[in-house]
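Appendix B. Raw example, untouched.
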Amino acid sequence: MNYLFSREQLDTILKQSMMYACACPAQICKTIKEQRALYTYQQECINRDDTDKAVHQAIADAIAETHPTLEACLKEVLLLEGWDLETLEMPAAILKKLMGESTDLMP
């Protein structure tokens, strides 16, 4: 499977998103990572025996088909929110908004 975002890039986005409670990019990153883990698992199962090969192949094929769509969704969300796609830094405007919301919750 080809990847638009490396594991390290997903971790960078995830870390920033979780640190500042910006859930949408974090949820997409988690789902992409889970998809990749499931795909790897299916590939290992495909090679074990012929009995369940069709089942594991069907799952792996579905992941391979949907993975690019989910990565494209992440890219679109990052662009819509104004993330820098080179550095994967959260935009200052979102950071300021999130930090403002957290101080609004304080007594």
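End of appendix B.
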